[in-house]
Amino acid sequence: MHAFDVLGDPVRRRILELLSAGEQASGTISETIGQEFGISQPAVSQHLRVLRESGFTQVRPAGTRRLYSVNPEPLRDVDRWLDGFRQFWTPHFDALATELARGRRERRLAGESPATGGPAGRPAAGGPGAEAPAAGGPGAARTTTAAPDRAISIDPREPGENP
Hints:
There is one protein chain. It contains six helices and five strands; from the N terminus they run ααβααββααββ. The protein is an alpha+beta fold. Among the domains are: 3-70, Arc Repressor Mutant, subunit A; 72-114. Strands 1-3-2 form a three-stranded antiparallel sheet. Strands 4-5 form a two-stranded antiparallel sheet. A hairpin with a 2-residue loop joins β2 (57-62) and β3 (65-70). The protein is elongated, with a radius of gyration of 23 Å.
């Protein structure tokens, strides 16, 4: 089976995500995947078999348990294949980094205090000494997350600056 055929299935991608945190027993994987996708233990076992036979996972016995882990080599092959396409998104990330740096520079030149994010000597909205905005109101912090453990944040402040 081709690598993208294997990775095209959301259940198998999720199993690889779970295993990226470290070796796990097949029973633990089956329980988690069963709850998340509503599929049976035999169905999860079939996905584990596909991953194992295609080389994406390795398995070792530990007593009565089977411990699965990621085999990185097929993922490296996918990464090498993707190298030819990075040209389409890398410039966008470079442009984003440039814009973030430009914004930090403009704030610095405008006399904003690095500690508060506001004009020197006065606390910025939401900074130390300022009233907190109402939840969901203007000035309230907004966070977008793909999953509870994967928050994505782009913050134009200098590292170490207070919110």
